[in-house]
Amino acid sequence: MSQSTMLICTTLLSLSCALSGCTEEGDAAKPAVSEATTAEASMVFVNGQVYTVNTKQPWAQAVAIQGNKIVYVGDDTQAKSYITDRTEVIDLKGKMLLPGFHDVHIHPLESASEVTQFTLPGYASESEYIDLLYEASLSHPNTDWLIGYGHEIATLLDMQTSPLEVLDEAIPERPVIIMEQTSHSMWVNSKALALAGITANSQDPIGGVIGKDSQGNLNGILYDNAGNQLMELAMNSRPDAKAQDYYGLIEYTMPELNKVGITSISDARTYWQRGHLQTWQRVADEDKLTLRVSLGLWAYPQMSDEKQLASLKAMFSRPSDSLLKVDQVKFYMDGILVNSTAAMHEPYEVNWLNLYQNKGLNYFTQARMEKYIQALEPVGFDFNIHGIGDRGIHEALNAIENASNGDARHRITHLEVVDPDDMPRFGKLNVIADAQVAGEFSQPSHWPENIPLIGVQRSQDLVPIKSLQAANATLTLSSDWNVSTFNPFVALSHAISRAPQNITLAQAIAAYTINGAYAMRQEHLVGSIEVGKRADLVVLDHNLFDLTAEQIKQVKAELTLLDGDVVYQAY
After folding, report:
1. What are the extents of the domains in the chain?
2. Looking at the predicted structure, is the pLDDT value of residue 375 above 80?
3. Which DSSP string do the residues of 375-401 spell out, in sequence order?
4. Are 476 and 511 in contact (CB under 8 A)?
5. What does the DSSP 8-state code read for residue 534?
6. Relative to the CA of 298, which of 47, 261, 480, 548 has its CA 20 to 30 Å away?
7. Which CATH number fits domain 240-525: 3.90.380.10, 3.40.50.800, 3.20.20.140, 1.10.630.10?
8. What is the pLDDT of residues 202-226, one digit of tens each?
9. Nearest Cα to 131, choosing from 116, 118, 143, 142?
10. C-alpha distances in angstroms, 272 versus 109, 278, 341, 359?
């Protein structure tokens, strides 16, 4: 660490006053003391506002580290005994020290990979899209497929011309696939459809819909798993895909995550048939990981259960001495509200896709999910289950109740429309409730946008984190980047201000630290600042408890440590 990062002292100054800070109730707390046998520390933080996320000792002034472990948490005076002339002593000057943040639902390979060649604006006119697409084609003349990202589904649905015709006019000679911002639909041209063998007579795949107009003609939109399968074809056509994924991870994603204080993540969709697992393993083998990582292997809906279960079992890995674990599986129960594919108890107010009973779709049925739980829990896998609609969430809870042995740490993620009767089941069944609130679309001011889809009553209290917390659910907060920003300070700000579904700051921090560690089976190592735990720490430029919700959005991390090593410093 450079001296310009912070004032580094070789001896402690006399500190005349106790640490000021707020407990969850807002009162000043005198730092307690937690210490191991006194020994020389390699690094000591002093004069800080240390929020430990340890309910037995919420606040401290000083933390001592030996190598990668925390050996002392307490006041400045007793920290002196850990300091020698070889100890790096960091005067925090009253700044806040926290355990490193966990993001247990993020898409790090997909979101920064340079396999994606161009980005479109969310909204544009048909002529503007044609111009942008033509320019993208000219800029990438030597690839078989053009792969893009960025539009919003409403833009395509509002077009006066068929989206297929628009894309064909811009790029008729090469297959094109463009991922919508939520990743739950793909915009494709006729060349792409032909390569996939999709015609107007093709049957919808499991968990997906082939978009058609009112006359039954293909319209160039592939919903949910129909689009996923075609994207798989496009990605596997790119011989440089693994290299692009690797460089995106190394050069952008991990440094940027460390920059905002994130030290642990769960990759929420590891496409193992695209080489994602090999990419992660390469980074680990080269000792370049700056995060603790749990991979959520994608469960392919169209794959036979026998083959998929055998493949998943063979990939499981949870070595105690590695930052990389392959110990989660990512399942989709349903789609999303804006596509009318989220699985609902009652029909949608609109009928765009002619789905059976107009109640959304299932990637995996409850019965099939139970089969996977029974087969994969004994191996050690925990499930990360996408559930947005009330029926999808209900069926996921049913599957866990019917098939789980009770020792797993399954979680349901997104949780947009939750049946109130299902909320107590999260605590009862030990199912983690994982929510994302960083995106503006999750804010209460945007809830009325769903009224045309699901009516007034079901559009209230979307992502009900306060209700879930009150129902004794273990709550985690995450980003789903790049659907939402991975900046945890934005999510913390929204979590405490999105009344009526807001929580306290202490609860939000716990959701991003110790609860995330629990979801990754590493709460014994990290997630709080306690003696014996690893030194995954972040220094902030302000004490979060002293700020308004809007001010929290502007907070910066100044220093991030992983396993006692500096992985980010601001200066």
Report:
1. 7-100+552-569, 116-236, 240-525
2. yes
3. HHGGGT-EEEEEE-SHHHHHHHHHHHH
4. yes
5. B
6. 261
7. 3.20.20.140
8. 999 999 999 999 999 999 999 999 9
9. 118
10. 12, 8, 25, 30
